[in-house]
Amino acid sequence: MSTGVGMSSCCLSGKLHEGKPAGRVETIGGLQAYVAEPENGSKEKTVVFLVDIFGWALPNVRLLADNYARAGFYCYIPDLHEGDSVDVEFLQTVEPQLPVREKQSLVNKGVQTAKIGATLGPWLAKHREAVAKPLMDGFINAVRHIPGTNKVGAIGFCWGGRYAILAAQGGNYEPGKGIDAAYACHPSLVAIPADFDPVTKPLSLALGDKDSLLGEKEVGQIQELMKHKAKEVPSEVRIYEDQVHGFALRGDWTSDKDKKAMDDAEKQGIDWFKKWLS
User: Fold this and answer.
1) Single GO molecular-function term (predicted)?
2) pLDDT per residue as tens digits for the range 42-100
3) CB neighbourhood size of 274 (10 A)
4) What's the predicted TM-score (pTM) here?
5) How many CB atoms lie within 10 A of CB 54?
6) I need a labelling partner for 164 at 20 to 30 A (CA). Which of 61, 95, 136, 248 fits?
7) How many CB atoms lie within 10 A of CB 23?
8) Distance of CA 254 to CAs 16, 78, 104, 237, 240, Å?
9) Contact present, 233 and 182 (Cβ < 8 Å)
10) Strands 74-78 and 31-36
11) Neighbours of 191 (CB within 10 A)
């Protein structure tokens, strides 16, 4: 039986990062997409970013795509929410960082949970798998037809982390197309083992040990699943100490430990794609 792991207030936690994205916006496969290209403009190693609930316009994900571009990858961030991402204001007002959250009263936590449920419930229904996955598949197929594109990877965060795992299953792509490798950071809404058993492409996972959506039990199940699949599918599972859901994308840059976790998670993805997209 599959264990479904849902979403909670942690999905709405984190901070906005400072900086001005250096890429541009194009329309690809019917979707708007942020594009960040390497200095040489090569599409030999392409990475598609699958966003969290805050969407493709979040500065954090665009700045991260810029970093991947500097590392030699041609990057796309498609608007899989079609202009309907969750308001970024929730980052500041609904869910504080972990140290603050741990000091809150049960009443305050209850009020926040009610607000979050009122926002996330309808949003998740509107952007369910039956709607979102065809958009992702169509975008990846469109990218595959762009001249110069060779190997393609998918990186996903939170909501998009699960879709990176689904992309690693193969599935609804043209013969010989789809992605070549995937990297999922703190995925949410995953079904264990149902989402992991069909994986056929190299898959890397970055998980926080304080993630309320993937507890010790779920992490152990995922590790065991990927271990059993190791002979047929290359994989890695890295656990980041004292890191909450969303840490790889929305962590606190003012905390040395959180900043290092973000940097290490970024390096994990870059190293993974250098290995499997070369």
Assistant:
1) hydrolase activity
2) 999 999 999 999 999 999 999 999 999 999 999 999 999 999 999 887 765 444 455 55
3) 14
4) 0.88
5) 28
6) 95
7) 18
8) 12, 29, 21, 26, 17
9) no
10) antiparallel
11) 15
Per domain, the residue ranges of the chain are 3-276
Q: Is residue 8 predicted with pLDDT exceeding 50?
A: no
Q: Which residue has the tokens 């037809």?
A: 145
3-276 fold: Rossmann fold (3.40.50)
In angstroms, rounded to a whole number, what is the distance separating the alpha carbons of residues 132 and 239?
28
Q: What is the DSSP string of 87-137?
A: PTTHHHHT---HHHHTT--HHHHHHHHHHHHHHHHHHHHHT-HHHHHHHHH
Which pair of structure tokens corresponds to residue 102?
């741990």
User: Which two structure tokens, joined as six digits, stand for 52?
Assistant: 């969290």
Residue 14 CA to residue 93 CA, distance in Å, equals: 11
- State pLDDT tens for residues 171-196: 778 777 899 999 999 999 999 999 99
In Å, the largest CA–CA distance within the chain is 56
Instruction: Give me the residue label for tokens 């993630």.
Output: 211
Alpha helices (runs of H) in the chain, residue ranges in sequence order: 59-70, 90-93, 98-101, 106-126, 129-144, 159-167, 216-229, 247-250, 256-276
* Token pair in block for residue 194: 């149902």
Cα separation, 166 vs 154, in Å, equals: 10
